[in-house]
């Protein structure tokens, strides 16, 4: 044991009698502490090792992944398959459930006949859900109209508008108002419209020649050979993200909306310019909906049966319009491969954000459920907002001058 020798206290130079300090007490303490730690580590090592110097922890001789229980709803099961496929730990195990091998046709764009037998009420479901289930795995469709050079100007803001072939008047009203391409508030703005195709069964007149003329004239149409239905909006979203990653990855921000919304482009640019750099990277704002789930009423266009999906929805921004960064768009495209296509496009985007560990942020400037009726003709109200839904082409032509008119004074 370390002991401190006894010394006679000496008066210091100031005249006060102070006790002598034990100079070796610190050294002794450190030595004892080191000895204690060595003994502790030795005991720990002996505990975890057996007599043959092998670890006492037993590694199971058989894999236990067979405990995975397959989901019954068709979408949930397919998502479970993707989760396992993209899980490097589980996917490396040799003995996986047999149902994982039942992946349907080798060509994902062939009709998936599994839906007919695995969705118990398939024959009772609305036609659009049946069609979605048969083609849920297909993500490759021919592009009919492309604009590969539309982003050569490296836009600060890319306005992406979901539209339908017959909506010529809406697209033209947008071009003349909030979607006017060029330099706005010293920032480069580019607009593109996303279109599908009209099938003979939809009883649309042949608009292809008119659409070709529009594309040549304005050079802002993107069209894929997909049936333009409500449940195919998710597919249109994924196809756009793929197009963006190849043709417009340098765009800093994207505002995606329907062709019946009004966007205050000046206010959007002002909002973006005020963002901190770290905030801009993962930006995703809109009219966020939380604690929502699938509708079970067959009369609603949002109807999703329990045989297809069970569970709650993650937070998501209403599909009328939302604003996000170009960097995030590239990440959304990559992660979308890990998320099974879901019939409702804005919910699907929320699922992709959840995969990235992100949550969309609610912004009061997005009014996807409109504003109070008494304010609809108040120009100052529109100046303070970013997006309002819904507005006709005539409304857009009326509201836009209120935004850009300098003589309009607002308190």
Automatic annotation (TrEMBL):
Interacts with B3GNT8; this interaction greatly increases B3GNT2 catalytic activity, independently of B3GNT8 enzymatic activity. It comes from Echeneis naucrates. One of its GO terms (biological process) is protein O-linked glycosylation. It catalyses: a beta-D-galactosyl-(1->4)-N-acetyl-beta-D-glucosaminyl derivative + UDP-N-acetyl-alpha-D-glucosamine = an N-acetyl-beta-D-glucosaminyl-(1->3)-beta-D-galactosyl-(1->4)-N-acetyl-beta-D-glucosaminyl derivative + UDP + H(+). Belongs to the glycosyltransferase 31 family. Its EC number is 2.4.1.-. This is Hexosyltransferase. Pathway: Protein modification; protein glycosylation. It is an enzyme of class 2 (transferase). It is found in: Golgi apparatus membrane. Its cofactor is Mn(2+).
């Amino acid at each position: 044991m370390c002991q401190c020798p006894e010394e006679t206290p000496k008066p210091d130079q100031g005249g006060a009698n102070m006790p002598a300090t034990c100079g070796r007490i610190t050294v002794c303490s450190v030595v004892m502490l080191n000895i204690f730690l060595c003994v502790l580590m030795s005991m720990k090592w002996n505990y975890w090792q057996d007599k043959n110097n092998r670890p006492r922890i037993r590694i199971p001789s058989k894999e236990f992944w067979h405990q995975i229980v397959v989901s019954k709803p068709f979408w949930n099961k397919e998502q479970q398959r993707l989760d396992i496929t993209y899980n490097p730990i589980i996917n490396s195990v040799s003995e996986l459930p047999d149902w994982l091998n039942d992946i349907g046709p080798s060509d994902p764009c062939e009709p998936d006949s599994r839906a007919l037998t695995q969705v118990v009420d398939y024959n009772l479901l609305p036609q659009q859900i049946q069609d979605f289930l048969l083609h849920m795995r297909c993500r490759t469709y021919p592009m009919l109209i492309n604009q590969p050079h539309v982003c050569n100007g490296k836009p600060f803001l890319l306005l992406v508008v979901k539209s339908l072939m017959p909506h010529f008047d809406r697209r033209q009203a947008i071009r003349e108002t909030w979607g006017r391409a060029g330099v706005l508030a010293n920032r480069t703005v580019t607009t593109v419209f996303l279109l599908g195709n009209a099938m003979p069964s939809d009883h649309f007149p042949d608009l292809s020649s008119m659409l070709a003329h529009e594309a040549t004239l304005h050079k802002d149409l993107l069209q894929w050979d997909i049936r333009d239905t409500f449940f195919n909006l998710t597919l249109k979203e994924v196809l756009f993200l793929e197009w963006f990653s190849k043709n417009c990855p340098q765009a800093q921000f994207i505002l995606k909306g329907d062709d019946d919304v009004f966007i205050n482009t000046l206010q959007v640019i002002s909002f973006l310019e005020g963002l901190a750099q770290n905030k801009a990277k993962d930006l995703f704002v809109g009219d966020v909906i939380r604690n929502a789930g699938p509708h079970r009423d067959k009369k609603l266009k949002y109807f999703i049966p329990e045989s297809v999906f069970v569970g709650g929805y993650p937070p998501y921004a209403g599909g009328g319009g939302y604003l996000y960064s170009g960097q995030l768009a590239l990440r959304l495209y990559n992660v979308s491969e890990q998320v099974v296509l879901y019939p409702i496009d804005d919910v699907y985007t929320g699922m992709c954000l959840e995969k990235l560990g992100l949550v969309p942020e609610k912004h009061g400037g997005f009014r996807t459920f409109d504003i109070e009726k008494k304010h609809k003709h108040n120009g100052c109200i529109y100046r303070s907002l970013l997006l309002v839904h819904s507005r006709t082409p005539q409304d857009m032509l009326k509201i836009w001058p209120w935004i850009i008119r300098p003589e309009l004074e607002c308190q």
